[in-house]
Amino acid sequence: MIVATGAKLSLPAIPGIDLPHVLTGATLRKLANGESVGATGAVPGWARFGVEKFGHVIDRHATPARIRRLADWWLPVGQRVVVVGADLAGIELAEFLAKRGRDVAIVTSHEDIAPEICPKRRLEHEKRLERLKVSINSATRVERITANGVELSMPSGKTSIVHANSVIVTGDPIADTSMCAALTAAGLSAHAIGDSTGLGLIVKAVYEGAELANRL
Q1: pLDDT digits (tens, 9 = 90+) for 138-186
Q2: Residue 206: inside a domain, yes or no?
Q3: Are strands 149-153 and 141-145 parallel, antiparallel or unpaired?
Q4: 207 lies in a domain?
Q5: CATH number of the domain that residue 53 is part of
Q6: Distance CA 27, CA 43 (A)
């Protein structure tokens, strides 16, 4: 049995992550899919009501093009946005928001953005982010989220604050081996591939799938 259940998102334990102007990547995905997001101050009541009542319609008819058109009209974020996390999903989200007139800053504790992609593609993203005037704060630790922004600890040891109306915490993709482990414990032959063995792209999943098929 081949298991490709993907990764699960782990949110960092940042003081202030529960403030009403903080969104997570999971919440944004639920909105795009027409799923209920519960009570969160970052999403207006009328938007939560619409998703809860008409979520099945949204899910049935949502396409990337329609979501982009809707985003040109309304987004659940303010003018100044801090994106905490810089994997591929995080930097693409930053580009998406900046193209729609938001002032965006990326914060990551890693030295590089999008470590799962090749250097050439990373450079292309960096050039686009530069053109869109998205600031990148790498090797930087988030100390806390406040009502006015995000407090940072810089590599030099100094502290700084990036002011923001909205903060989006993308979360860290963590390999999810729970199903593979459960199947193995039940005495079944199971092999994990893709993000369930560690962060990667579709190329990683296809390669591991092909390699496993050849072995079997």
Answers
A1: 999 999 999 999 999 988 888 999 999 999 999 888 888 889 889 999 9
A2: no
A3: antiparallel
A4: no
A5: 3.50.50.100
A6: 9
Residue % of the chain over a pLDDT of 70: 79
> Which residue do the tokens 């050849």 mark?
214
Cα–Cα–Cα angle for 57, 60, 61, nearest 5°?
Answer: 85
**Phi, psi at 130, each rounded to 5°:** -65, -45
18-40 burial code (b ≥16 CB/10 A, e <16): eeebbbbbbbbebbbebbebeeb
For residue 110, what is the DSSP state?
S
| pLDDT at position 58 | 44
CB 186 within 8 A of CB 201: no
Convert the pLDDT of each residue in 46-86 to its tens digit: 344 344 443 444 454 445 555 555 555 557 788 999 999 99
- Give phi and psi for 45, each to the nearest 5: -60, -40
pLDDT of residue 202: 81
Host domain of residue 32: 2-175
Q: Which amino acid is at 189?
A: S
- Name the token pair of 46: 């009328």
- Per-residue CA distances from 52 to 26, 33, 125 (Å): 16, 11, 35
Compute the distance between CA of residue 69 and CA of residue 64 in angstroms, rounded to an integer: 9
Q: Is residue 192 domain-resident?
A: no
